């Protein structure tokens, strides 16, 4: 069986921001030219978590969301999620290219960022990658840094924005709405009390939780339709006494049962911080106000 020929972007691609987009666009161009499959290699675990033995780097997106963002916005057909373990961590950089990328995954052209390091102790770098590709007779592109407003676009900077609830600015650097995909779970039926259908979602372990508060969001269903929603992220102080973080979207202009469906939630704007109300009626009135803010927001988009 003949192996697919692939043009492969290299990186972790957390959040799939505009800097990553420069690599992925180049992959698409070269794949079309070489009649190869546009692909990307990412990892299931952030390498720093294993290398530094330190507290987890909070991620902007799960592997599932990362792969879907690359497909949706950049046409990447094959997202290879490599398991980052001790074996991968200790793999010599040359072996990573010759054995893993070329022999196992059919690489005919590689694309990496200007600061990409790989292999044991990070000994592989863009210069060495380009030289080895030349020796192997395969193509290689090294993409320079991408800036916006004189700031280098990076996952680290975007994490800071989202942690502060600055969703609109974060989305400018991402190049798309911040996204959460999950299967709808049963909640405490608060939506029926307030008169809105709700979706209860969860951030996967290790994924960054945005600043607590209420956001204007859009929920996409499995059938490809979408509805605006008012989404609360936090501990719901009006109705709960615990510290469990929930993501509860109140869907506007929709009726139906979404339990068990996988939905995609896109975050657009923080409307207010999370706060405790005197009673459910006061909470309902505020949600109604947030619903009008959300409708007005999407009406001009």
What does this entry show, briefly?
This protein is 34% helix and 26% strand. The protein has 301 residues and is an alpha/beta fold.
Mind explaining what this structure looks like?
The protein is an alpha/beta fold. It has 2 domains: 6-152, HUPs (Rossmann fold, 3-Layer(aba) Sandwich); 177-299, Beta Barrel (Elongation Factor Tu (Ef-tu), domain 3), CATH 2.40.30.30. The chain has helices at 18-34, 47-51, 63-74, 86-89, 93-104, 126-136, 155-163, 167-174, 190-194, 280-299, and strands at residues 6-10, 37-43, 78-82, 107-113, 139-143, 147-148, 151-152, 178-183, 198-201, 213-220, 226-234, 246-251, 262-273.
* Spatial gap, N to C terminus: 49 Å
Reported by name, the CATH topology of the largest domain is Rossmann fold
What does the overall shape look like? Answer: elongated
Give me the secondary-structure category.
Answer: alpha/beta
Helix content: 25-40%
Written as H for each helix and E for each strand, in order along the chain, the element string is EHEHHEHHEHEEEHHEHEEEEEH
**How many domains make up the 3D coordinates?**
2
